[in-house]
Design brief:
The chain has 24 helices and nine strands. The chain is α/β, with parallel strands linked by helices.
Length: 549
Amino acid sequence: MKDSTKRYIPADGIEGLKQNFSKDALSGFLVFLLALPLSLGIAKASDFPAIFGLVTAIIGGVVVSIFAGSRLTIKGPAAGLIAICGGAIAAFGGADIGWHLALGAIVVAGIIQILFGIFKLGKLADFFPGAAIHGMLAAIGIIIMSKQIHSILGIDPKFLKGKEPLELIAMIPESVMHENAHIAEIGITCLLIMIGLSFVKHNKIKKIPAPLVVLIIAIPMGLWLHVKTEGAISNFALVKIGSIFEAFTNGSVMKGDFISRGVLNADFSALTTHIGEFIMYVILFALIGSLESLLTAKAIDGLDPYKRKSNYNKDLIAVGAGNTLTGLLGGLPMISEVARSSANVSNGGVTRWANFFHGLFLLLALLVAVPVIEMIPNAALAAMLTFVGFKLAHPKEFVHMWHVGKEQFAIFTITVIVTLSTDLLVGVGTGIILEIIINLVNGTSAKDLFKSNISINAVNENDVTMTVNSGLVFSNVLGFKKAFATLPKGKNVTVDVSKSSIVDHTSILALNGLVYDYKYEGGTIKVVGFDNHTQLGHAPTSTRLIKKG
């Protein structure tokens, strides 16, 4: 029997602001406390001026929230793009000029994201194999940690310039031997606070943003240890922001080198001087940024207590417009960021106004609290980012993929290794190619690789059967979802996979998502036919192969 009770959906727009002002303002403030240090840290780790990390988050909140397609996601700079941002600046000549050229790539990528949304490519996330995505995120986590560990120990950033992730990892013992005692004391203390608070189970304490606790401890420690006045280390010991008015009237704030460019900082001359690198980073910014945003929006939809579904195409347009604007001004690429978005949900945010308020509080802080912000030790920011990186590359991720299946673990591991050895684009591409090869070996025919063979039969007025007559894999699951979208809402759907030679890990994740979404549209989905298959792993989402004989 279907549930005929109409779900309550909070109002949007101005009416939503009136109804949920107190909840959204409070959640926005709490997310602001989390976003302030993380935005600064991500900017510095990306080799961007620290102030523009805040500018990105402000635009993501105050501007993008108004026309975003998701209600609970928080837009801002992301740790997952640190490696791409830093790589772009290095590839374009480093220092100040590299920053300006990287901004040009961000602007073009933003325009491409707008086109993704216009052409309804919000389904883009469904094409990437789950194991490759997890491998990409784990590799990003390792890349973040490889650099930030040195910053925790007080190593001068100039010694880290131009070093690849594997080189930075190899340098850790040397950095331990040559650590700056005072800076390391702050950094290690902050890291231990982040780790310790992650084990706290008390609900009220868990709601306190860990970065806020870090700042409350780190700033007094920096003053007590006289970090600001310790000669040469003062150049990199504390956050340097400067005036927002100076940043936009004088242009560049990279390394204190002010030049007269006006308010727009993007430079597009790499189209002629670095065309190969420019195209590569445009692709990386557009694809990886869009993918992370879409995955976050889907994840947050699952946490939404009102079970609202985001308009992913509209959200891509909004994020793309935000990136176009922030790139022109000097900011980092923004996405729907998962940690801040999850915090928004847990803090009781109800509508898009929570994201707006988080941006508004950041703007106020930038206007009136810069002297306080510039008391934050960089080692504290590095500790926060190291913890973020560790969560992305947590050993549990490796264990989970092993349980999903050895073939998925192989894809995951190869993606990590290749990404660390080359770059994100090559790493993810390698993971995709390996998944295709494995699926072909496991029984997917070449003609069905990108085209699903689906038959639909209406049993009666309320019951429909969808039969999968071919392998169902990540590369053709979009075809299955397209066929499913033609079904009327509110039916009892049976998906029969008994004839499918293979149903891979990514396809099972997609089926689970359809079951979840369709339920809240008033219908039901039942998947049958797995009795005819062998499971390649121990997890519920493990790949299934049809039994031979």
